[in-house]
Automatic annotation (TrEMBL):
Entries under PROSITE patterns matching the protein: CBM20
Domain of life, per lineage: Eukaryota
Coiled-coil regions, chain positions: none
Regions of compositional bias (Polar residues) in chain numbering: 977-991
Family: Belongs to the disproportionating enzyme family.
Cellular component annotations (GO), alphabetically ordered: cytoplasm
Source species: Zingiber officinale
Top-level EC class as recorded in UniProt: transferase
Sequence segments annotated as region (Disordered): 961-991
Protein name: 4-alpha-glucanotransferase
């Protein structure tokens, strides 16, 4: 237990005011609380030097106190931490740091008590731009300087007065409404809201201005009431009032105000930092679709940024609050359809030319170019995206328009401003390197920069020569500027439209970048170029996934406080108010593969605590070559290849001792095996069996039990699913038991603290880089540390019904999902709801029986009734967000299900060269005219309680009706939230 020694030793005698911090919080044995803040009395930002709090039981509550002497003018930012006896952080409260400024008129020797509440993660979500600028943006019509109850501190007799400052946060407040407080004291109206105290909106003029708080009022008690306060507790609640509706009290138990009558030095000034206004848990809904999948009457072969305005309109009219996209950055690495993969960025800052609307490049496009655009629109109006033809058409047409208007655009003020802003963007000059890279890629006809001669290695001097206005290719450089300028304009127009319509635009932050990208060229020190990123075997692929991206050099990135990541988030925030962190598990640990791997099976986690040779030897494990080299015996070759085994052996193996084989040097990696198969003589003899031969050879080279560390040969990592290998099965029982135990320890025990620490270094930097609402894709093999960290940081998780987090379940139960989640029946990385239903009869029967509750034989097709049931399950879930792929919503109507379900799949994760080309088979213009579908969806949204903000009726907000309906469901346990750790009756569900 930490000791509280009272005043901070660093405070000099001139300090005149005593600050008392008070926080109700239940801790576990061995845990303590401390405050860390920006000023020396609170540790100057160093948690180890923070101010310790001491506990005291008061009734059923455990209250933590600390006091410190400060001088006039004291101001600080601070947060509370749960720590162990060595001051190691176990948990940090969520949200931004608190701010406090000592009132200037507080006299010498006064006691100021700050009564805080632990800030839960669910509270911080509503401080994001998604809520304060979009969903609730414009709701408050309050003036920060309006008249309100106040106190002149100079006029008080501080010997006979207690000043109480009430403070409450309220994100969700309708136009024309205000906040008040009522309670048992006469000054609070004796529970009559008409006599309660109205509060004033303080805006940026308060000590919590950065949280968009409502500081509500200051009131003082004197004389008889002063004695009354000292000897009694007063209860109170906040309420919302609108001139056209009845006042609405906040939910939850009464709040309590009391002062310890036994205290030698009772406070003169109490700050009641009462946290959030307690209302029913807010829940929203949205639609997800890749940018390239959108179809409209104006597009040219693919969805375009300006099409988002149509999608926003459809979302609004269907009752949704959010539109979610896949990554939209440029992926033009190969200049072919491989670039359709949206997660393999050429640049994490540049936008993809694929999404450009060429008709919007100019108001004065010549007739011949207009005719060309019309012709290409007709040619490219196909079932799926023709990536190569569409890119070629757009770049060709754009170049013609650029050549005609070059002088005009290059001299325009807006274009020059765009260039200037992105030349010095958070120390990341991305535009010039991007244009130079594109020029070199096209000039050398490859993105493999090892073939660029002297330009293989980046330098500022080389860059300036490449982008110089005196260069012969200067028009090429400026053409890339021109394309990015118009992409920025068009996406900004769509993003502004979404904000005005109160629709959250949610982007996607990919976990990796392409190996041959602008970012790896300019910042090679930030990447481990001899490695590859992937994921271990999971629901998506039994062989794991190999995405081909280099892993990050986190140690190098930390030297400038992750400036590259901060720049990425700042750039995203120009357009989006929410974002999805792709593969958030990678910020805890990444599945790292050697660059010669073709699959994702034989990898290791980075960082991780390896098995040392000494550790293994103590357990009786000695034959490390046997365990870490492919185990190939003659009988294995005969079993796999039959009579063909001798041909395989002669081409791929050396017999190093009788009946024992090792791979030849030219095929001793996965990629080498694949390459050799393609170059064997008499190719026709292999064609019939090539796929099977390749699969079996890869299985043999993966037939190891331990992976030796390439940088330290005395360290080893257990191969994933090692028990499935014939190498393992051939071991003695003792070795098997030891390795099984160490395997479990490596993957599920020993790394947890390390992975938590790793995530806490990086994720807070990302979250503090913007005000966007952050959601994490937490699917796959999830360490036990992940969800507590996400909860602590205020990160929303993801729940896909067919991929439950619980290992003993086949299907997730949406009604049991936690509040801080996004729920969805499918996503871009799996088959759609219809395709999933139809692809596996036995699984369909189990779902129909165990989830739907029907023992009959389920229909072979996903009927509209089945689709309605599954969507209804999700839309009624407690999850904060229910976000549905648009394909799944179209399944609600028969006329949209004529296309084979399998054709609606966006990605096949088992295919590393999948062609991302799915397009809607109906254009958004037509979908907007389908009132039946829109009304069906909107009714589902409203009936689920996910309908705030809702339409107004004669100027009167009707959100209260929806809230009442949802509150009734909350009473039935449908949408409740547990607030962990807090013991105060002032804690509840926040908005």
């Amino acid at each position: 237990m930490l000791l509280n020694l009272g005043s901070h030793s660093g405070i000099k005698s001139r300090s005149t005011v005593t600050l008392v911090f008070r926080l109700p919080y239940y801790t576990q044995w061995g845990q303590s609380l401390l405050i860390c803040g920006s000023q020396p009395p609170l540790g100057s930002g160093n948690v180890k030097q923070g101010l310790a709090l001491s506990p005291s039981h008061q009734g059923d509550e455990l209250i933590w106190y600390a006091k410190v002497s400060v001088s006039a003018g004291f101001s600080c930012e601070y947060s509370y931490y749960v720590v162990d006896d060595n001051r190691n952080v176990l948990r940090r409260e969520a949200g931004k740091k608190r701010r406090f400024t000592l009132p200037s008129d507080v006299p010498e020797k006064a006691v100021v008590e700050i009564r805080d509440l632990w800030q839960e993660a669910s509270e911080s979500l509503f401080l994001s731009s998604a809520f304060k600028d979009v969903i609730f943006g414009g709701e408050k019509d309050l003036d920060a300087d309006e008249e309100g109850p106040d106190v002149s501190l100079k006029s008080l007799d501080w010997q006979d007065s207690i000043v109480v400052q009430f403070m409450i946060r309220c994100s969700k407040i309708e136009h024309g409404a205000s906040i008040g407080v009522t309670g048992s004291a006469s000054q609070l109206g004796k529970w009559k809201t008409q006599d309660g105290l109205r509060l004033k909106y303080a805006g940026d003029n308060t000590w919590k201005a950065e949280l968009d708080c409502l500081v509500l009022f200051i009131v003082y008690f004197t004389g008889l009431l002063h004695i009354f306060v000292l000897n009694h507790s007063h209860t109170y609640k906040y309420y919302q009032v609108h001139e056209l509706t009845d006042p609405t009290l906040e939910l939850g138990p009464n709040r309590e105000l009391s002062v310890d009558s036994q205290s030698i030095h009772p406070p003169n000034y109490i700050v009641l930092a009462d946290g959030p206004f307690r209302v029913t848990a807010w829940r929203g809904s949205g639609v997800a679709i890749p940018m390239f999948s959108i179809r409209s009457t104006d597009d040219l072969g693919v969805g375009e940024f300006l099409d988002l305005k149509l999608l926003v309109d459809w979302a609004i009219e269907s009752g949704f609050h959010l539109v979610q996209l896949l990554p939209i950055n440029d992926t033009s690495v190969h200049r072919m359809w491989w670039d359709s993969y949206p997660y393999s960025s050429l640049s994490v800052f540049a936008l993809h030319p694929l999404y450009l609307r060429v008709q919007a490049l100019s108001d004065d496009i010549p007739e011949n170019i207009k005719e060309e655009i019309l012709k290409m629109k007709q040619q490219l109006d196909k079932k799926d995206v023709d990536y190569e033809a569409t890119m070629a058409a757009k770049l060709s047409i754009s170049k013609k328009i650029f050549d005609l208007e070059k002088e005009k655009i290059l001299n325009s003020g807006s274009f020059k401003t765009f260039i200037s802003e992105n030349e010095n963007f958070l120390e990341q000059n991305w535009l010039k390197p991007y244009a130079a890279y594109c020029f070199l890629r096209d000039f050398f006809e490859t993105s493999d920069r090892t073939q660029w001669g002297s330009f293989s290695h980046f330098s500022s001097e080389k860059l300036e020569k490449l982008v110089s206005e005196d260069a012969l290719h200067h028009d090429v450089i400026f053409f890339h500027y021109y394309i990015q300028f118009h992409l920025h304009k068009q996406l900004s127009e769509a993003a502004d439209y979404a904000r005005k319509k109160k629709i959250v635009l949610k982007g996607d932050l990919p976990i990796g970048v392409d190996r041959n990208s602008v970012d790896t060229w300019v910042y090679p020190n930030l990447f481990r170029m001899n490695t590859s990123t992937g994921a271990p075997p999971d629901y998506f692929d039994k062989n794991g996934q190999n995405w081909g991206f280099p892993t990050y050099n986190w140690e190098e990135m930390s030297k400038d406080n992750y400036a590259w990541w901060r720049a990425r988030l700042t750039q995203m925030a120009k357009y989006f108010t929410a974002y999805r962190i792709d593969h958030i598990l990678g910020f805890f640990r990444i599945w790292e593969l050697p660059d010669h791997a073709a699959t994702g099976l034989v990898g290791k986690f980075r960082p991780s605590i390896a098995l040392s040779q000494e550790e293994l030897e103590k357990e009786g494990i000695w034959d490390f070559n046997r365990l870490s080299c492919p185990y190939v015996r003659q009988e294995i070759l005969q079993e796999k290849f039959g009579t063909f085994w001798t041909v395989i052996a002669s081409n791929f193996f050396n017999e190093y001792q009788k009946l024992c084989y090792e791979f030849k040097e030219d095929c001793n990696t996965e990629k080498n095996i694949i390459s050799k198969l393609k170059t064997l003589p008499e190719k026709s003899l292999w064609l019939e069996k090539e796929s099977k031969i390749q699969s079996d050879l890869l299985e043999l080279i993966q037939n190891i039990v331990l992976i030796r560390d390439p940088e330290d040969p005395r360290k080893f990592y257990p191969r994933f699913n090692l028990e499935d290998t014939s190498n393992f099965k051939a071991l003695d029982e003792h070795s098997k038991n030891v390795l099984k135990r160490l395997y479990y320890d490596y993957y599920f025990c020993r790394q947890e603290d390390l992975w938590r620490q790793n995530a806490m270094k990086t994720l807070p930097v990302l979250l503090n880089s913007s005000d966007m609402l952050a959601c994490g894709e937490d699917l796959g093999l999830i360490p036990s540390c992940v969800h507590p960290v996400m909860q602590e940081l205020g990160l929303i998780g993801l729940r896909i019904q067919r991929m439950p987090n619980e290992p003993d379940r086949e299907f997730g139960i949406p009604s049991q999902y936690p509040y801080m989640t996004v729920c969805a029946p499918s996503c871009h990385d799996c088959s759609t709801m219809r395709a999933w239903w139809e692809e596996d009869e036995e699984r369909r029967c189990r779902f129909y029986r165990d989830v739907v509750g029907c023992n009959d034989i389920p229909p072979p097709r996903c009927t509209t009734d089945i689709a309605y049931y599954i969507i209804q399950q999700h839309i009624q879930a407690p999850s904060m967000w229910a976000i549905f792929p648009l394909q799944d919503m179209l399944a609600l109507k028969d006329e949209y299900t004529t296309r084979p379900a399998v054709e609606e799949t966006i990605n096949d994760p088992t295919n590393p060269k999948h062609y991302w080309r799915y397009r809607l088979h109906i254009n958004l213009d037509s979908l907007l005219l389908d009132n039946d579908l829109k009304n069906l969806v909107k009714d589902m949204v409203i009936n689920s309680g996910r309908s705030y903000p809702v339409e107004k009726n004669n100027g009167i907000g009707v959100a209260a009706a929806s809230e009442k309906k949802q509150a009734e469901k909350d009473q039935e346990g449908i949408a409740t939230i547990q607030i962990n750790g807090s013991s105060s009756n002032r804690s509840s569900i926040p908005v």
